[in-house]
Amino acid sequence: MIETTTGGTRYRNGHERSLASIIAEMKEELKEFINTRVQMVKAELEETKNAAKIALPLMLVALALFATAFLLLTTAAVVLVGFAFAGNPLAWFYAAVIVGFVWVCLGGICVFFAYNAFRSHSIFPKHTIEVLKADKLMLQAEVRSHS
Fold first, then answer.
1. I want to staple 10 with a disulfide (CB 3.0 to 4.6 A). Which of 3, 38, 132, 137 is the partner?
2. Tens of pLDDT along 1-59?
3. Are 1 and 12 in contact (CB under 8 A)?
4. With a threshold of 0.85, does the pTM exceed it?
5. Is 14 strand, coil or helix?
6. Can you tell me whether residue 121 is helix, strand or coil?
7. Per-domain boundaries in the chain
8. How far apart are CA 48 and CA 93, in angstroms?
9. Spatial CB neighbours of 21, under 8 Å, sequence gap ≥ 6
10. Are 73 and 81 in contact (CB under 8 A)?
11. Cα–Cα distance between 114 and 61 in angstroms, integer?
């Protein structure tokens, strides 16, 4: 059983807690709570950083290989289209314009899908945000129960 006295709160065992000690305890709990959440964010960001350290060099090599393949395939496409205009003095120009236009159209489609993919995903740590939302609801319920 808890009794309130002028000096603080008296518990069943007769010990008294001052308002200052209760506030200090709440302050420590709040610090611990915030520290835990900050550590969660740091851990998630560290995992992302470690994955990027491995993936980034591999992506650069893949990009170089894809760029080389793209140039070779573009040259082959221009040659094929150029032969379709054989005998025309501007055959290679027409071939380059046609292939370039196709690449611009395909690039536009890729940009559209990339934009939609980024727009639908958040760059923030999702797990931490979910935990913080749950914490907020828990704290609101706790405040309501003590009111």
1. 3
2. 455 555 555 555 556 778 888 888 888 988 998 899 889 888 888 888 888 888 889 99
3. yes
4. no
5. coil
6. coil
7. 3-146
8. 47
9. 8
10. no
11. 21
